[in-house]
């Protein structure tokens, strides 16, 4: 995997691949890592990266409001990692609401996947302690070395 100064940029092949090669090479020379992906794969990953993530953030913000949580006090009591999560929540709510509605509702497939996510969370809620531990451990195993890399990355961030 190429390390670069800038974040990864996704490139989906268009109608005339040759017409944009000079532009793409210029971006690479600037230090961007380009990740080639089909438009179908892009849309599927964006369902998780944008759709579900933004849906969860908006749902959590609304839930905190419905519970009349004092956000300043919650932030003051939060550990550094949860404070960062709260700040990301605040960042989203400082943006254009219509943009996030459009992202969440971008397609029927995206909405169906969000509904599947909600079904998954409902099933998770019904697990007993042993079942929850088993679910956690199976997921951690599935994530593999991503967990260790994430631990190191967030340690550096914090």
Primary descriptors:
mainly alpha, single chain, two-stranded parallel sheet, 70% helix, 158 residues, 8 helices
Structural features, described:
With 158 residues, the protein is mainly alpha-helical. The protein has a two-stranded parallel sheet with strand order 1-2. The chain is globular, with a radius of gyration of 19 Å. Helices cover 70% and strands 5% of the residues. The chain is built from eight helices and two strands.
Summarize the structure.
By secondary structure, the chain is mostly helical. The protein has helices at 21-29, 39-66, 71-77, 80-93, 97-104, 108-125, 129-143, 146-157, and strands at 8-11, 33-36.
How large a portion of the residues is in β-strands, by DSSP E? 5-15%
Runs with pLDDT <50, length 5+? Answer: none
Distance between the termini: 25 Å
The helicity comes to over 70%
Mean pLDDT: 91
Q: What is the global morphology? A: globular
Major beta-sheet overview: 2 strands, parallel
Structural class: mainly alpha
State Rg.
19 Å
**Please, how many helices?**
8
Strand count: 2
H and E order: EHEHHHHHHH
| Strands in their spatial order, largest beta sheet | 1-2
Topology, please?
Elements (H helix, E strand, L loop, with lengths): L7 E4 L9 H9 L3 E4 L2 H28 L4 H7 L2 H14 L3 H8 L3 H18 L3 H15 L2 H12 L1
Helix pairs in contact: 2-4, 2-6, 3-4
